[in-house]
Batch of 2 targets.
Target 1
Amino acid sequence: MSGQTPGIRNMCMDPECTQPLRLAWQSAASQNADGTWTYSLAAGTTNGTICLSDIRCDVGDIMAVQYAESYPTMPVLEHFAAISYMNGLLVAQAKNPSTFGTINVTNPLTPLAMLHVTATDWQRLQSMGVNWFDGSSMPKIA
Protein backbone atom coordinates (compact mmCIF):
# COMPACT_ATOMS: atom_id res chain seq x y z
CA MET A 1 0.00 0.00 0.00
CA SER A 2 1.43 3.38 -0.86
CA GLY A 3 0.42 6.88 0.04
CA GLN A 4 -1.90 7.89 2.85
CA THR A 5 -5.08 6.11 3.95
CA PRO A 6 -7.68 8.85 4.63
CA GLY A 7 -9.07 9.04 8.15
CA ILE A 8 -7.07 6.13 9.53
CA ARG A 9 -4.40 6.99 12.07
CA ASN A 10 -1.56 4.79 13.13
CA MET A 11 -1.19 5.26 16.88
CA CYS A 12 2.33 3.87 16.77
CA MET A 13 4.70 6.78 17.35
CA ASP A 14 7.49 5.21 15.25
CA PRO A 15 5.78 3.18 12.50
CA GLU A 16 9.00 2.82 10.50
CA CYS A 17 10.84 1.40 13.51
CA THR A 18 13.78 3.78 13.34
CA GLN A 19 14.01 4.39 17.09
CA PRO A 20 14.84 1.75 19.70
CA LEU A 21 11.84 0.23 21.43
CA ARG A 22 11.45 0.57 25.12
CA LEU A 23 13.20 -2.43 26.59
CA ALA A 24 11.20 -4.12 29.27
CA TRP A 25 13.03 -7.07 30.74
CA GLN A 26 16.21 -9.06 30.06
CA SER A 27 16.51 -7.83 26.46
CA ALA A 28 19.26 -6.15 24.49
CA ALA A 29 19.04 -3.92 21.40
CA SER A 30 21.54 -3.36 18.64
CA GLN A 31 21.21 -0.99 15.71
CA ASN A 32 21.81 -2.44 12.24
CA ALA A 33 23.59 -0.72 9.36
CA ASP A 34 20.22 0.04 7.69
CA GLY A 35 18.95 1.87 10.79
CA THR A 36 16.64 -0.90 12.01
CA TRP A 37 17.01 -2.42 15.46
CA THR A 38 17.37 -6.06 16.41
CA TYR A 39 16.26 -7.23 19.85
CA SER A 40 17.63 -10.34 21.49
CA LEU A 41 17.99 -11.85 24.91
CA ALA A 42 20.42 -10.20 27.27
CA ALA A 43 23.52 -12.25 27.99
CA GLY A 44 22.90 -15.12 30.37
CA THR A 45 19.11 -15.03 30.14
CA THR A 46 16.61 -17.50 28.70
CA ASN A 47 13.55 -15.30 28.24
CA GLY A 48 12.96 -11.57 27.87
CA THR A 49 10.39 -9.04 26.71
CA ILE A 50 10.24 -5.75 24.81
CA CYS A 51 7.47 -3.19 24.76
CA LEU A 52 6.17 -2.41 21.24
CA SER A 53 4.18 0.72 22.01
CA ASP A 54 4.21 3.66 24.39
CA ILE A 55 0.49 4.19 23.72
CA ARG A 56 -1.90 2.10 25.75
CA CYS A 57 -4.17 -0.21 23.82
CA ASP A 58 -7.89 -0.45 24.36
CA VAL A 59 -9.70 -3.78 24.18
CA GLY A 60 -10.09 -4.60 20.50
CA ASP A 61 -7.19 -2.44 19.24
CA ILE A 62 -5.08 -4.07 16.55
CA MET A 63 -1.30 -4.21 16.49
CA ALA A 64 0.54 -5.45 13.42
CA VAL A 65 4.30 -5.86 13.29
CA GLN A 66 6.37 -6.82 10.26
CA TYR A 67 9.61 -8.52 11.21
CA ALA A 68 12.68 -9.15 9.07
CA GLU A 69 12.70 -12.67 10.48
CA SER A 70 10.07 -15.30 9.74
CA TYR A 71 10.08 -18.05 12.36
CA PRO A 72 7.95 -21.19 12.08
CA THR A 73 6.10 -20.18 15.24
CA MET A 74 4.92 -16.65 15.86
CA PRO A 75 6.32 -14.41 18.57
CA VAL A 76 4.00 -14.21 21.59
CA LEU A 77 2.33 -10.81 22.03
CA GLU A 78 1.17 -10.88 25.64
CA HIS A 79 -2.47 -9.96 26.37
CA PHE A 80 -3.31 -10.09 22.66
CA ALA A 81 -5.15 -12.70 20.61
CA ALA A 82 -3.31 -13.56 17.41
CA ILE A 83 -5.30 -12.92 14.23
CA SER A 84 -2.64 -14.06 11.80
CA TYR A 85 1.06 -14.72 11.38
CA MET A 86 2.60 -15.22 7.96
CA ASN A 87 5.98 -14.37 6.45
CA GLY A 88 7.06 -12.44 9.53
CA LEU A 89 3.85 -10.32 9.78
CA LEU A 90 2.09 -10.68 13.14
CA VAL A 91 -1.42 -9.24 13.49
CA ALA A 92 -3.06 -9.40 16.92
CA GLN A 93 -5.99 -7.88 18.83
CA ALA A 94 -5.81 -6.56 22.40
CA LYS A 95 -7.74 -8.67 24.91
CA ASN A 96 -7.18 -6.36 27.89
CA PRO A 97 -7.22 -2.58 28.31
CA SER A 98 -4.02 -0.64 29.03
CA THR A 99 -1.80 -3.22 27.36
CA PHE A 100 1.35 -1.79 25.83
CA GLY A 101 2.03 -4.66 23.47
CA THR A 102 4.73 -6.58 25.28
CA ILE A 103 6.34 -9.27 23.16
CA ASN A 104 8.38 -12.23 24.33
CA VAL A 105 11.91 -12.32 22.95
CA THR A 106 13.29 -15.82 22.64
CA ASN A 107 14.91 -15.41 19.20
CA PRO A 108 16.30 -12.21 17.66
CA LEU A 109 13.54 -9.94 16.31
CA THR A 110 13.97 -7.01 13.91
CA PRO A 111 10.75 -4.97 13.55
CA LEU A 112 10.53 -3.23 10.15
CA ALA A 113 7.10 -1.59 10.43
CA MET A 114 4.40 -1.29 13.10
CA LEU A 115 0.72 -0.47 13.03
CA HIS A 116 -1.55 0.26 15.99
CA VAL A 117 -5.16 1.08 15.04
CA THR A 118 -8.59 0.86 16.58
CA ALA A 119 -10.77 -2.15 15.75
CA THR A 120 -12.99 0.15 13.69
CA ASP A 121 -10.06 1.41 11.62
CA TRP A 122 -8.85 -2.18 11.15
CA GLN A 123 -12.29 -3.15 9.82
CA ARG A 124 -12.14 -0.16 7.44
CA LEU A 125 -8.72 -1.27 6.19
CA GLN A 126 -9.97 -4.81 5.67
CA SER A 127 -13.07 -3.58 3.80
CA MET A 128 -10.73 -1.68 1.44
CA GLY A 129 -8.79 -4.88 0.83
CA VAL A 130 -5.76 -3.60 2.74
CA ASN A 131 -3.96 -6.37 4.56
CA TRP A 132 -0.44 -5.04 4.19
CA PHE A 133 1.19 -1.79 5.25
CA ASP A 134 4.54 -0.17 5.56
CA GLY A 135 5.66 2.38 8.07
CA SER A 136 4.78 5.35 5.83
CA SER A 137 1.36 4.13 4.62
CA MET A 138 -0.70 5.88 7.27
CA PRO A 139 -0.08 9.06 9.19
CA LYS A 140 0.90 8.57 12.78
CA ILE A 141 -1.27 10.09 15.43
CA ALA A 142 0.01 13.50 16.52
Note: Strands lie at 22-25, 27-31, 37-41, 48-51, 62-67, 80-86, 89-94, 102-105, 111-117.
Target 2
Amino acid sequence: MAAILGRFEGASRQHTDAGDGPAERSAMTCFAQRVLARVDRSRSADPAATASGPPPPGVTPLSARQATGASVLLLECAFLHILENGTTDQRSAGSPASHGAAVIHALGQAILQEVSHGGLVTPAGNPPR
Protein backbone atom coordinates (compact mmCIF):
# COMPACT_ATOMS: atom_id res chain seq x y z
CA MET A 1 0.00 0.00 0.00
CA ALA A 2 2.98 2.30 0.53
CA ALA A 3 3.74 2.24 -3.19
CA ILE A 4 0.16 3.23 -3.99
CA LEU A 5 0.35 6.08 -1.48
CA GLY A 6 3.63 7.27 -2.98
CA ARG A 7 2.12 7.26 -6.45
CA PHE A 8 -0.93 9.13 -5.09
CA GLU A 9 1.22 11.82 -3.46
CA GLY A 10 3.11 12.42 -6.70
CA ALA A 11 -0.03 12.47 -8.82
CA SER A 12 -1.95 14.73 -6.42
CA ARG A 13 0.62 17.50 -6.90
CA GLN A 14 -0.16 17.46 -10.62
CA HIS A 15 -3.93 16.92 -10.45
CA THR A 16 -5.12 19.34 -7.79
CA ASP A 17 -7.07 22.45 -8.72
CA ALA A 18 -5.27 25.78 -8.81
CA GLY A 19 -7.29 26.88 -5.77
CA ASP A 20 -6.17 23.88 -3.73
CA GLY A 21 -3.24 24.80 -1.54
CA PRO A 22 -0.97 22.84 0.77
CA ALA A 23 -3.74 22.36 3.35
CA GLU A 24 -6.03 20.72 0.79
CA ARG A 25 -3.25 18.51 -0.59
CA SER A 26 -2.35 17.52 2.97
CA ALA A 27 -5.99 16.64 3.66
CA MET A 28 -6.17 14.60 0.44
CA THR A 29 -3.03 12.69 1.45
CA CYS A 30 -4.48 12.10 4.92
CA PHE A 31 -7.68 10.81 3.28
CA ALA A 32 -5.65 8.43 1.09
CA GLN A 33 -3.65 7.20 4.08
CA ARG A 34 -6.82 6.52 6.04
CA VAL A 35 -8.44 4.69 3.12
CA LEU A 36 -5.35 2.53 2.56
CA ALA A 37 -5.16 1.77 6.29
CA ARG A 38 -8.79 0.63 6.14
CA VAL A 39 -7.89 -1.70 3.27
CA ASP A 40 -5.00 -3.15 5.26
CA ARG A 41 -7.20 -3.67 8.30
CA SER A 42 -10.03 -5.19 6.24
CA ARG A 43 -7.64 -7.75 4.75
CA SER A 44 -6.13 -8.64 8.14
CA ALA A 45 -7.12 -11.42 10.47
CA ASP A 46 -9.64 -9.09 12.15
CA PRO A 47 -11.81 -7.60 9.39
CA ALA A 48 -14.12 -6.03 11.98
CA ALA A 49 -11.37 -3.55 12.91
CA THR A 50 -11.82 -1.15 10.00
CA ALA A 51 -12.70 2.10 11.79
CA SER A 52 -10.23 4.92 11.26
CA GLY A 53 -10.93 6.90 14.40
CA PRO A 54 -11.25 10.67 14.37
CA PRO A 55 -9.26 12.69 11.85
CA PRO A 56 -5.96 14.09 13.09
CA PRO A 57 -6.18 17.55 14.66
CA GLY A 58 -5.52 20.42 12.30
CA VAL A 59 -6.40 18.57 9.10
CA THR A 60 -8.81 20.57 6.96
CA PRO A 61 -11.91 18.51 6.07
CA LEU A 62 -12.38 17.81 2.39
CA SER A 63 -15.37 19.04 0.45
CA ALA A 64 -17.40 16.42 -1.40
CA ARG A 65 -15.73 17.55 -4.64
CA GLN A 66 -12.25 17.17 -3.17
CA ALA A 67 -13.08 13.76 -1.69
CA THR A 68 -14.41 12.61 -5.07
CA GLY A 69 -11.24 13.78 -6.79
CA ALA A 70 -9.03 12.11 -4.17
CA SER A 71 -11.03 8.88 -4.44
CA VAL A 72 -10.79 8.73 -8.22
CA LEU A 73 -7.08 9.53 -8.13
CA LEU A 74 -6.46 6.89 -5.46
CA LEU A 75 -8.32 4.24 -7.47
CA GLU A 76 -6.36 5.24 -10.59
CA CYS A 77 -3.05 4.99 -8.73
CA ALA A 78 -3.95 1.58 -7.31
CA PHE A 79 -5.09 0.30 -10.70
CA LEU A 80 -1.91 1.51 -12.42
CA HIS A 81 0.25 0.03 -9.67
CA ILE A 82 -1.46 -3.35 -10.01
CA LEU A 83 -1.18 -3.28 -13.81
CA GLU A 84 2.51 -2.43 -13.68
CA ASN A 85 3.57 -4.53 -10.69
CA GLY A 86 0.85 -7.06 -9.93
CA THR A 87 -0.09 -7.68 -6.33
CA THR A 88 2.07 -9.10 -3.60
CA ASP A 89 -0.83 -10.47 -1.58
CA GLN A 90 -0.57 -14.25 -1.53
CA ARG A 91 -3.52 -14.79 0.83
CA SER A 92 -6.12 -15.60 -1.78
CA ALA A 93 -6.13 -18.20 -4.48
CA GLY A 94 -6.88 -17.32 -8.06
CA SER A 95 -5.40 -15.52 -10.98
CA PRO A 96 -3.46 -12.26 -10.71
CA ALA A 97 -6.40 -10.53 -12.38
CA SER A 98 -8.86 -11.75 -9.74
CA HIS A 99 -6.34 -10.82 -7.09
CA GLY A 100 -6.05 -7.28 -8.48
CA ALA A 101 -9.82 -6.99 -8.74
CA ALA A 102 -10.12 -7.98 -5.08
CA VAL A 103 -7.69 -5.21 -4.08
CA ILE A 104 -9.59 -2.62 -6.12
CA HIS A 105 -12.89 -3.83 -4.64
CA ALA A 106 -11.47 -3.56 -1.10
CA LEU A 107 -10.23 -0.06 -1.93
CA GLY A 108 -13.67 0.97 -3.18
CA GLN A 109 -15.30 -0.36 -0.02
CA ALA A 110 -12.76 1.47 2.14
CA ILE A 111 -13.43 4.73 0.27
CA LEU A 112 -17.16 4.38 0.89
CA GLN A 113 -16.56 3.71 4.59
CA GLU A 114 -14.15 6.62 4.97
CA VAL A 115 -16.46 9.06 3.19
CA SER A 116 -19.44 7.89 5.26
CA HIS A 117 -17.85 7.46 8.67
CA GLY A 118 -14.31 8.83 8.67
CA GLY A 119 -15.05 12.41 9.65
CA LEU A 120 -12.63 13.90 7.13
CA VAL A 121 -15.24 14.75 4.47
CA THR A 122 -17.81 17.48 5.00
CA PRO A 123 -21.39 16.47 4.24
CA ALA A 124 -22.59 17.38 0.74
CA GLY A 125 -23.79 20.96 0.49
CA ASN A 126 -21.74 22.16 3.46
CA PRO A 127 -18.55 24.11 2.79
CA PRO A 128 -15.36 22.82 4.41
CA ARG A 129 -14.47 24.27 7.80
Note: The longest helix spans residues 64-85.
